[in-house]
């Protein structure tokens, strides 16, 4: 996965293939299928590698307050996007493991930490879920734009390829939530489609900010 990420950093996602990866590892391409079922699994693995351990890298001092938690989370995700601009669209645009998870905060562990932290700081269930939605939308728009400026391909997500029973993400949301107690408890709220409302709220916030700037 690390070598695949290096190839993406150098040449972009479209140029990564099982053959090119095997060549870089000095092995036969078929031997890679002992570890992944195909390119689909490979791209999912790179995406997981990028976001793996995100919560452990958050500044615990800043996370003592909810504003600080959101700041340190945003800066850590941005660091990933800036360090790997050509790979970040994998995190941002590939099918999440469940339709109620949103990129780029698409890891169940990250979402559970996000929800439990905000609820611990006094957010209601609804407020915590709304914050997750709004925060994800902000990060996605801003960081995809920054990645594109740095040469990333941001074309529509590829259709999953079933190569030898590849582990294609479950579109029906039947995923193992493990110890993610807050995600499991708040799944009905996470599953609600409130995109129309979210768009209008975000637009009004932008207009209000512009109005304040002009008024000054």
Quick structural gist:
The chain has ten helices and no strands.
Helix content: 55-70%
| Unreliable parts | 159-166, 168-173
Number of strands: 0
What is the third-level CATH name, the topology? Tetracycline Repressor, domain 2
Q: Into which percentage range does the β-strand content fall?
A: under 5%
Q: Give Rg in angstroms.
A: 19 Å
Overall geometric form: globular
Average of pLDDT: 83
Give the termini distance in whole angstroms: 51 Å
- The run of helices and strands is HHHHHHHHHH
CATH class: Mainly Alpha
Helix tally? Answer: 10
- Tally of distinct domains: 1
Class from secondary-structure proportions: mainly alpha
The major β-sheet equals: none
CATH architecture descriptor text: Orthogonal Bundle
Structure commentary:
The chain has helices at 2-11, 18-25, 39-51, 66-83, 88-93, 108-120, 125-149, 181-185, 187-191, 195-215. The chain has 216 residues and is mainly α. The chain has one domain: Tetracycline Repressor, domain 2. The longest helix has 25 residues, at 125-149. It is globular. The N and C termini lie far apart (51 Å). The model is unreliable at 159-166 and 168-173 (pLDDT under 50).
Strand and helix map with partners:
Elements: H1 2-11, H2 18-25, H3 39-51, H4 66-83, H5 88-93, H6 108-120, H7 125-149, H8 181-185, H9 187-191, H10 195-215
Helix pairs in contact: 4-7, 6-7
Features:
216 residues; mainly alpha; Tetracycline Repressor, domain 2; 10 helices; 57% helix; globular
């Amino acid at each position: 996965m690390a070598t695949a990420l290096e190839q993406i950093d150098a040449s972009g996602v479209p140029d990564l293939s099982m053959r090119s990866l095997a060549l870089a590892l000095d092995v036969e391409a078929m031997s890679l299928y002992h570890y992944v079922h195909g390119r689909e699994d490979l791209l999912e693995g790179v995406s997981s590698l990028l976001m793996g351990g995100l919560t452990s890298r958050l500044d615990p001092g800043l996370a003592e307050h909810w504003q600080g938690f959101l700041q340190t989370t945003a800066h850590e995700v941005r660091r990933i996007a800036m360090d790997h601009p050509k790979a970040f669209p994998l995190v941002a645009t590939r099918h999440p493991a469940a339709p109620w998870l949103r990129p780029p905060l698409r890891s169940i562990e990250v979402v559970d930490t996000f929800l439990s932290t905000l609820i611990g700081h006094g957010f209601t269930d609804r407020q915590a879920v709304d914050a997750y939605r709004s925060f994800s939308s902000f990060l996605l728009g801003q960081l995809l734009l920054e990645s594109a400026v740095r040469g990333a391909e941001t074309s529509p997500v590829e259709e999953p390829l079933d190569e030898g029973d590849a582990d294609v993400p479950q579109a029906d949301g039947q995923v193992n939530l493990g110890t993610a107690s807050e995600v499991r408890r708040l799944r009905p709220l996470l599953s609600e489609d409130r995109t129309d409302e979210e768009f209008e709220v975000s637009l009004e916030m932008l207009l209000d900010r512009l109005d304040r700037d002009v008024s000054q």
